[in-house]
User: Which sequence fits this backbone?
């Protein structure tokens, strides 16, 4: 940089000297030219003095000119010096500018180098990052390939297992088909009719259940959609109210918006309602058709019962009882098509089962050469009376039922005309004594001995009837922990089973409770507690413990749970009296537990109070202490080889007018369950009971 400054200075100095030298030479040349001109003029005018005078004048003029030139020269020198100084200042300024330019250039080069360095570092980092990402992707690919291989192996194993299961199932179905073909070839006409009727009933039950599930799902979807729309509208209205300031304008906008929202909601609900009304109309029509079919079938049952109770010829009796058996099964199928609650369905079904079982028992008696007894005719009279009550309710309902009534029943099961009618039907079925003898799907195992007095741990063998005041006092004791606020006498029940006082109670929350107290000994015959039960807080094991504790509280001993039926959140247990390893089905009670509150909400002891005696001194099949003549192995050999035995025990069941000691075998065939009873004296199979898939129950042994 220093050498550069020196070079610039030298160049500047040599230029100034050159300009000055050229100016001096120019001035001297001008003076010489003037002097020469003057000499020539004086020579031309004359010689002598003239010439000398001219020379002197010229010299004087030349002197003056020389002085002027000197002064001009000084001025020029001064201006030159000023100019030189200004040029030096300009040169200095240019030098400074050049130096600043060089500094800026150096700074730019430095910044450029730094940026280049940073770019290089960033590039290295990007390269490292890409390499790391590439390595990570490679690891993930390897891991994914490993998982894919494992998944492929697992899927292959699952497919192989599924294939093996399908083959096994196909082989099982093939074997079942072969067995079915063999059975069809060897079965009698009567057995074929029974089998077809059972298959038809199972199909109807499956269709009903599927239809009910589909309808419930449709209702749930509709309710969920309406709730979502309501939430969206509420959220939108809330946001609008929060975003707008109050005032007349705000209130006006809110009113207008609310009107628009209401109109939109009305449109949406109207469209949805139209569609739901169409679906509900179709369901309502189907249910009304099922109701008419049920009414017509029970009318046929009424005619058969009316004729059978006065028929005397074996041929006519056989025809009437066969038709009665078929019509009761058809009535069961018709009932399954109607959306009644579980209690009504169970009670009505059990009543129809009892009617059909009674007809079947009487048919067997006639076919074996016997004749109907007075007890059989009494049973037909009782069945006829109950069926007439049920038929009258159904006929009245069929005549007055409207679409509005049906829609109200479908929307809410309680508090409408259909509900009230079916509640009366349920009560009639319960009063008959047939619907409460043996709940849980074990049909026709109880005896019906109207000539026996009650005895045992709960009841006294005999005694004078208690008064209504004593019965009310006993009722208060039974329900001491039910928070009873009021109790009212509701009349008496007089039947061939047990005479009882009826009481209606209300707890502190307004829920009603209906109870029956025996006139003979103030024993609790049964009760129903109409309390809501919707949650599942207690499992079946806890519910069973609650039911057993309740029986202990009432004074029942040696009771064993034989069957449980779970309907929604209610568990109903069937307890039978057991002594010396023998289960006495005629001595049975039923206990219903609410799985939400963990409390007993239903109880029935008609069968126990009617049939129980001291079993140690009681004769069964003519022998005391229920002694068997054949072994369990021999009894089991009487079973069909198609059946798979799950458990077995001795049991006493009612057959006609007598109690019979037998072996009870719980069996399976395919997906169906059966109870097979083999006579312990003869080793003959005397009864087969099928566990229907719609029962929702299970055996507890």
Assistant:
């Amino acid at each position: 940089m220093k050498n550069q400054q020196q070079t610039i200075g030298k160049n500047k100095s040599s230029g100034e000297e050159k300009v000055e030298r050229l100016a001096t030479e120019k001035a001297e040349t001008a003076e010489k030219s003037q002097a020469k001109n003057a000499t020539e003029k004086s020579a031309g005018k004359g010689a002598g003095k003239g010439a000398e005078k001219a020379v002197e004048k010229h010299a004087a003029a030349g002197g003056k000119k020389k002085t002027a030139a000197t002064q001009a020269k000084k001025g020029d020198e001064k201006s030159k010096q000023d100019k030189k100084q200004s040029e030096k200042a300009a040169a200095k300024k240019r030098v400074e500018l050049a130096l600043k330019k060089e500094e800026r250039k150096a700074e730019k080069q430095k910044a450029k180098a730094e940026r280049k360095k940073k770019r290089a570092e960033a590039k290295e980092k990007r390269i490292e990052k890409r390499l790391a990402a590439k390595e990570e992707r490679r690891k993930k690919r390897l891991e994914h390939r490993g998982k894919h291989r494992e998944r492929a192996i697992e899927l292959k194993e699952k497919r192989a297992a599924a294939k093996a299961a399908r083959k096994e199932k196909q082989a099982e179905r093939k074997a079942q088909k072969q067995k079915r073909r063999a059975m069809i070839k060897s079965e009698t006409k009567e057995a074929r009719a029974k089998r077809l009727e059972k298959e038809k009933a199972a199909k109807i039950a499956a269709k009903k259940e599927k239809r009910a599930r589909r309808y419930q799902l449709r209702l749930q979807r509709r309710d969920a959609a309406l709730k979502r729309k309501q939430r969206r509208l509420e959220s939108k209205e809330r946001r609008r109210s929060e975003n707008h300031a109050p005032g007349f304008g705000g209130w006006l906008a809110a009113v207008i918006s609310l009107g628009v929202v209401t109109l939109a909601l009305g449109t949406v609900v109207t469209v949805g309602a139209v569609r739901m009304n169409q679906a509900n109309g179709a369901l309502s029509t189907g249910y009304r058709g099922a109701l008419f079919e049920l009414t017509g079938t029970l009318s046929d049952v009424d005619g058969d019962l009316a004729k059978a109770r006065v028929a005397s010829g074996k041929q006519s009796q056989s025809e009437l009882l066969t038709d009665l058996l078929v019509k009761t099964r058809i009535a069961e199928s018709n009932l399954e098509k109607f959306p009644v609650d579980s209690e009504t369905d169970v009670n009505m079904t059990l009543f129809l089962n009892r009617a059909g079982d009674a007809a079947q028992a009487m048919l067997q008696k006639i076919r074996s050469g016997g004749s109907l007894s007075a007890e059989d005719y009494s049973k037909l009279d009782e069945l006829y009376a109950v069926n007439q009550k049920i038929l009258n309710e159904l006929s009245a309902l069929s005549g007055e039922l409207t679409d509005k009534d049906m829609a109200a029943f479908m929307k809410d099961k309680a508090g409408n005309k259909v509900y009230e009618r079916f509640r009366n039907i349920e009560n009639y079925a319960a009063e008959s004594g047939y619907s409460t003898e043996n709940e849980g799907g074990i049909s026709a195992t109880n005896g019906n001995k109207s000539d026996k007095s009650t005895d045992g741990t709960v009841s006294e063998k005999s005694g004078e009837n208690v008064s209504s005041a004593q019965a009310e006092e006993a009722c208060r004791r039974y329900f001491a922990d039910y928070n009873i606020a009021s109790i009212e006498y509701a009349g008496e029940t007089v039947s061939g089973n047990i005479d009882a006082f009826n009481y209606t109670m209300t707890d502190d929350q307004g829920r009603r409770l209906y109870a029956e107290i025996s006139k003979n000994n103030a024993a609790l015959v049964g009760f129903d507690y109409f309390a809501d039960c919707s949650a599942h807080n207690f499992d079946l094991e806890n519910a069973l413990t609650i039911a057993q504790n309740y029986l202990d509280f009432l004074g029942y001993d040696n009771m064993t749970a034989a069957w449980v039926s779970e309907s929604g959140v209610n568990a109903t247990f069937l307890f039978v009296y057991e002594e010396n390893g023998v289960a006495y089905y005629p001595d049975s009670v039923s206990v219903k537990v609410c799985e939400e509150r963990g409390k007993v909400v239903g109880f029935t002891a008609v069968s126990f109070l009617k049939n129980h005696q001291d079993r140690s001194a009681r004769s069964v099949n003519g022998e005391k202490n229920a002694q068997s003549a054949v072994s369990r192995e021999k009894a089991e050999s009487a079973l069909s080889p198609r059946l798979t035995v799950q458990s077995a025990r001795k049991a006493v069941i009612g057959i006609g007018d007598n109690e019979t000691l037998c072996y009870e075998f719980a069996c399976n065939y395919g997906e169906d369950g059966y109870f097979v009873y083999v006579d312990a004296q003869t080793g003959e199979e005397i009864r087969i009971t099928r566990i229907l898939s719609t029962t929702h129950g299970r055996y507890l042994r």
